[in-house]
Design goal:
heterodimer; A: 16 helices; 4 strands; B: two-stranded antiparallel ribbon; 18 helices; 67% helix; transferase (chain A); PC_Trfase_euk (chain A)
């Protein structure tokens, strides 16, 4: 992952990226988020240096390279600090999200179970002390005359890690709730991009925003409509939203995974993925072949996601464009020929991933949380004494409320 | 932000509002003359002026101590209000730091975005921490209960949309040729808000677990400052770190020992008061009575028999919480000062003398709060990991029931539990199965 900045040329790094491309094609459903983490975090080593005020050189990148290579030589081990923070963040974020599933995976082995249980209990403290160790290390390596550079790097590292890990942890959490909740938002963004491009290509006239001169209002609106239609009915257009109907019927994509195994999944997909039948009203013309349509309730949720993907997610793209303009770089990297780096492809996806997670947590889970599921939890997880205790406490709460009302 | 005169002669905290606002200042630098004002380093110099300023500072710090005790007496909500006020002042100091007047003239209303994000962050952070307390406060009124419950349910979404709206607003206000400045401000705003709100939300969470868990860490930091100063004053010889040339190893070690010892003793004293040790479960302001828990019940240790006869005490009673206080003291003396070093380094990096100047003679609030911030975070994490009894599954499931089910559903669940739960449940499941499963 070391980028050789000593080569004061343009922003190229060929070696590590081909490695990443190979890893990405290995098709595990858990790793894409992780690999993208690593690639995005190599932004830390990118040429963008926000503190560079002396932008008078002809080629900013060359100045950056030379200057930073010079500084890096005075600060050996400074890069190591960045990676220390990276791994601490990874431990913290994935530990939180995957802890329950880790426990479920090792329930068979008693020793491992105890070990894992203890690790989870002290997870927060462990991560905190790792962070503090990094913090102290940073302070002890502060060198006179390099303060500004070092603090700038520190802040930059934090911002990157926060941006990268928020969205990737949310993506990971979504994946474990059911691959559907990862695939659907991602496909919606892709459809939005493609449709915007096509509409802009054929009908584009009025420019949309100064930041991205190639985008047009026609493209924007056409893409929004396409995305929403695709999300809702997935009939003829919206290929990926046909998926919303088709996908819903594949258990592999809709079942949540409760542990870290990799085998097949069988589950009762829940009320969201059971088709409901709506008979069309009589005033529909006679030649219409179908008398009733089946809609999975999840398609209404897909509609909400589609709305967001078409209207708000593009702002992630505008943000990235503005950012590139601010620091006068053309692309974040160049791993993907013709498209720039991975960050260029992922800028809208990041915004969408966060929204998909929050949407799922707020609107999908509570809907499916019914008496049945809670009873399931009570009967599976609590011992008889605990059930009695729950019963007493619940009774108390209900009685207090009735007393308060009267 | 208040631009108050920075006075280099004996600083006089003038008005009562000043005094109350300055309540969080480390008492050490109130009481003792600032070395930078002494002519020639750390050596005590006999000078009328210095002793006069020392007396004035003692005077004002006594006033501050009184203010602190008053607010502690008033209770949890007032302390939280004070934390919020200090937070606002800190944030405004820090926002102001990176602003450049010339650019700001071309971007009217840009500073509004900062405060917009500030209030979104406040809603998010305090909403999370105080949601349970809020629910407990309105259990009596059905309408409010429903309202509060749905607000809490959709709290994350609401805050997310507020944040997204802010981001969209930011993008729409981007102006050509000002991109770099605007993005820099955006990043700076985020860093400030994260730093300020993490520690203040943890502080507030600690306050509601018992004022003890707020007073003890804060006091330990102040004690460390005072003790380190004294030891450095009298014995200081070898400098500690290049960042802060006034600190010495003697001060550091002496301060550590003093802090740990005083942590042990202070925990004993503070642990006797129910007002300080009882957690508050809702947002009321009245008196608290509770069973303080096993941590605050004294345990008696007898001295070993080989101790000489003339020692009057046969044993010592120790509150178990004092051992926790030892750990807090250790952290406060060894690691928390790094918060101070960080702030010093930051000031050197950006070539500023102080973060602000609301407090005459001492700079701004951030200068006073730098070590406190690191300590607050540690105190919260320590408390959650080692002190708080683990939330058992009963509580979690009860939480889910109360939050997600309507009143009728809760009562139905109650009745199901009342009778033979297993039997009834199996019957229901069998009925569902036979009614036709989805087979995809």
């Amino acid at each position: 992952m070391q980028k050789d900045t000593g080569s004061g040329g343009t922003s190229t790094s060929s070696g590590p990226t081909s490695r990443f491309r190979r890893r990405k094609s290995s098709n595990e459903d858990k790793s894409p988020a992780l690999v993208l983490d690593l690639r995005l975090s190599s932004l830390m080593e990118e040429n963008v240096h926000p503190e560079d005020d002396k932008a008078h050189g002809s080629h900013l990148l060359v100045n950056d390279h030379n200057k930073r290579a010079h500084e890096d030589r005075h600060l050996p081990g400074f890069r190591l600090l960045n990676w220390h923070f990276f791994f601490t963040a990874m431990l913290f974020v994935y530990g939180r999200i995957l802890s329950q599933r880790l426990v479920n995976t090792v329930t068979t082995d008693k020793f491992l179970y105890k070990l894992v249980g203890r690790f989870i209990k002290y997870h927060m403290v462990t991560c905190y002390f790792l962070y503090i160790a990094g913090f102290m290390w940073f302070i002890l390596t502060l060198k006179k005359k390099m303060y500004k550079y070092q603090f700038g790097q520190y802040a930059w590292t934090h911002m990157i890690l926060i941006v990268v890990f928020t969205q990737s942890s949310f993506t990971g959490a979504n994946i474990f709730e059911g691959i559907f909740w990862f695939l659907l938002p991602a496909s919606l963004i892709v459809i939005n991009d493609i449709a915007a491009y096509i509409f802009g290509f054929f009908f584009g006239k009025t420019p949309l925003i100064k930041l991205s001169p190639k985008k047009t209002w026609e493209g924007f609106i056409g893409a929004s409509v396409t995305t929403m239609i695709s999300a809702l009915c997935g009939l003829l257009l919206g290929v990926a939203m046909l998926l919303a109907n088709l996908l819903g019927r594949f258990q592999w994509l809709t079942c949540p995974r409760k542990d870290l195994s990799t085998g097949w999944l069988h589950c009762d997909p829940g009320p969201l993925f059971k088709p409901e039948y709506f008979t069309l009203p009589e005033w529909f013309p006679g030649w219409f072949p179908w008398r009733e349509i089946s809609i999975l309730p999840v398609q209404w949720h897909a509609l909400g996601l589609g709305l967001f993907a078409s209207i708000i997610a593009p702002f992630g793209g505008f943000f990235a464009s503005g950012f590139k303009r601010a620091f006068k770089i053309k692309d974040f990297g160049d791993s993907i020929p013709g498209h720039g780096g991975i960050t260029d492809r992922m800028d809208c996806q990041m915004v969408m991933a966060v929204f998909a997670y929050i949407y799922h947590q707020s609107f999908v889970i509570p809907q499916s949380l019914s008496i049945e599921m809670i009873m399931d939890q009570i009967l599976m997880n609590l011992t008889y004494e605990e059930q009695r205790a729950l019963y007493m406490k619940l009774g108390q709460i209900i009685m207090e409320r009735q007393f308060g009302e009267s | 932000m208040n631009m108050m005169q920075k006075q280099h002669s004996p600083p006089l905290p003038s008005t009562p509002t000043n005094r109350i606002r300055q309540r969080r200042r480390a008492k050490s630098l109130e009481v003792l003359p600032d070395p930078s004002k002494l002519n020639g380093g750390n050596l005590p110099v006999h000078d009328q002026n210095k002793y006069r300023s020392m007396w004035i500072r003692t005077h004002s710090s006594l006033w501050m101590l009184g203010g602190v005790i008053l607010i502690l007496y008033l209770g949890h909500l007032y302390i939280c209000a004070m934390v919020v006020v200090i937070q606002i002042l800190m944030a405004s100091e820090l926002f102001h730091l990176r602003r450049r007047v010339h650019e700001d003239k071309q971007l009217p209303g840009f500073w509004l975005i900062n405060w917009y994000f500030f209030f979104t962050a406040m809603l998010y952070v305090y909403g999370r921490i105080l949601s349970q307390h809020l629910v407990n406060t309105v259990t009596s009124d059905q309408f409010f209960y429903r309202l509060v419950n749905s607000l809490i349910k959709y709290h994350m979404v609401i805050c997310y949309f507020l944040y997204t709206a802010g981001m969209v607003w930011f993008i729409l206000t981007l102006k050509k040729k000002m991109y770099k400045y605007q993005f820099g401000q955006y990043a700076w705003t985020h860093m400030i808000l994260i730093v300020v709100f993490t520690q203040s939300s943890f502080t507030v969470a600690n306050i509601f677990e018992g004022i003890f868990w707020f007073v003890l860490p804060a006091f330990l930091i102040a004690t460390n400052d005072v003790a380190a100063y004294f030891f450095g004053f009298f014995f200081g010889r070898t400098p500690l770190i290049k960042l802060s040339p006034k600190k010495t190893w003697e001060g550091f070690i002496g301060g550590s020992i003093a802090t740990v010892v005083s942590a042990f003793l202070l925990a004993n004293i503070l642990g006797q008061f129910q007002w300080l040790t009882c957690p508050r479960k809702d947002l009321s302001t009245g008196w608290l009575n509770c069973d303080p828990g096993p941590l605050f019940k004294p345990e008696y240790y007898c001295f070993p028999i080989w101790l000489p006869e003339w020692i009057p005490w046969k044993g010592v009673s120790v509150l178990p919480v004092q051992w926790h206080a030892l750990c807090l003291g250790l952290f406060a003396s060894i690691i928390a000062p790094f918060g101070g070093f960080f702030a010093s380094g930051l000031k050197r990096a950006f070539k500023i003398k102080d973060f602000g100047d609301s407090i005459p003679g001492h700079g701004g609030f951030t200068d006073r709060m730098d070590c406190q911030m690191v300590m607050a975070i540690f105190a919260y994490i320590y408390f959650q990991s080692f002190v708080l009894p683990q939330t058992n599954s009963v509580e979690m499931i009860l939480d889910q029931i109360v939050r997600n089910l309507s009143f009728e559903e809760q009562e139905r669940l109650y009745m199901m539990l009342e009778n033979d739960p297993w039997g009834l449940w199996i019957v229901i499941k069998l009925e569902k199965n036979s009614a036709g499963r989805y087979d995809g």
